[in-house]
Design goal:
The chain is an alpha+beta fold. The chain folds into two domains: 21-222, no CATH class; 226-283, Type 1 dockerin domain (Orthogonal Bundle), CATH 1.10.1330. Helix content is 14%, strand content 26%. It has helices at residues 2-8, 170-181, 237-247, 273-283; strands spanning 21-25, 29-34, 41-42, 48-53, 61-67, 79-88, 97-103, 123-124, 134-136, 140-141, 155-159, 164-168, 189-192, 202-205, 216-222. Strands 2, 4, 5, 7, 11, 13 and 14 form a seven-stranded antiparallel beta sheet that branches. It has a four-stranded antiparallel beta sheet with strand order 1-15-6-12. A two-stranded antiparallel sheet has the order 3-8. A hairpin with a 3-residue loop joins strand 9 (134-136) and strand 10. The protein starts with a helix and ends in a 6-residue tail after the last helix. Residues 1-19 have low confidence and may be disordered.
Length: 289
């Protein structure tokens, strides 16, 4: 039976409009890596972070870092359906540039350093801060100056000036799912701007800014794995019986639908092939995360 299901399922996607739970998180840490030869700049306690390059003749990149405590906000075994990251751009660079989001591969620090003025020049680094050269100043270095991160981006978006901007993709949702299941590997993300030409830097509010401007990670999730209809942490034949018994009844509001509408796996109030695809994928995994 499982082989039969596996042959039918190549991918599983979830459309919007579900009745899933939603969690909105603010960062537990954020900072900026300012290009420097000595690793002497940071902005751990500043109200702004930057991605892109400065106006100097020598291209000097800035890269924003932020991390969220995903596991603390999702029940064990939750299935992440979608995720979006929203930041407020508060700078004066009105040209639009693509900014990409990259999963971090190593831990990093946020201490009490604060940059002066508009904060784009960075501040004097303090012990425990992340810098261009250091994960934690002064003793722990990145393997590669500028940060250790996934080369492939998890999401990208075009950023103007003075606007809210949002990153969202299935890869971002997969990042969040992994962070929930493997918190020891949750090092957050890096935001990179266009680093090929000068004057591309974008300025984003950090968690130290006023509440309305702080970064927000919105996660839509189902509080257990999608195929675990009877909530016993297993996806097995008892779940299949529940699913099959309800699959041929199309609408959850139909009086003949079994209690809890068990075949509506994606919680959109309709039982259709999308539910079959999702259940089949979960059925082959056997165990909830």
């Amino acid at each position: 039976m499982r082989t039969f299901f596996a042959s039918l399922v190549a991918t599983a996607a979830i459309a919007g409009g579900t009745r899933a739970d939603v969690a909105t998180l603010t960062p537990v840490a954020d900072n900026t890596l300012y290009f420097s030869t000595d690793g002497g700049l940071s902005n751990g306690a500043g109200s702004a972070m930057f991605a892109g390059t400065t106006a100097s003749l020598t291209i000097a990149p800035r890269r924003a870092l932020l991390r969220f405590d995903v596991q603390a906000h999702l029940p064990p075994g939750s299935t992440v359906l979608a995720a979006s990251l929203t930041l407020v751009e508060s700078g004066a660079n009105f040209d639009e540039y693509i900014c990409t989001l990259h999963r971090m591969a190593a831990s990093w620090g946020e201490a009490g350093s604060v940059a002066l003025g508009g904060q784009g020049g960075g501040g004097v680094v303090l012990t425990g801060d992340a810098t261009w050269l250091h994960r934690f100043f002064p003793g722990t270095a990145w393997l590669t100056p500028g940060g250790d991160f996934a080369v492939a981006s998890s999401a990208s978006t075009s950023v103007g000036a003075g606007v809210s901007c949002t990153w969202s993709s299935s890869l971002l949702a997969a990042d969040v799912q992994d962070m929930a299941q493997n918190p020891a590997a949750n090092f957050g993300w890096m935001i990179r701007g266009d680093e090929t030409v000068p004057r591309t830097a974008k300025k984003f509010s950090t968690r130290e800014d006023i509440d309305a401007n702080r970064p927000r990670l919105e996660i839509r999730f189902f509080p257990t794995c999608l195929g675990d209809i009877n909530a016993d942490t297993l996806v097995d034949d008892t779940d299949f019986v529940d699913f099959a018994g309800a699959y041929n009844t199309l609408l959850c509001e139909d009086p003949s639908m079994p209690a809890r509408c068990p075949a509506d796996v994606n919680f959109d109030t309709v039982v259709d092939d999308a539910d079959f695809v999702l259940f089949a994928a979960a059925y082959n995994d056997l165990l909830c995360p």
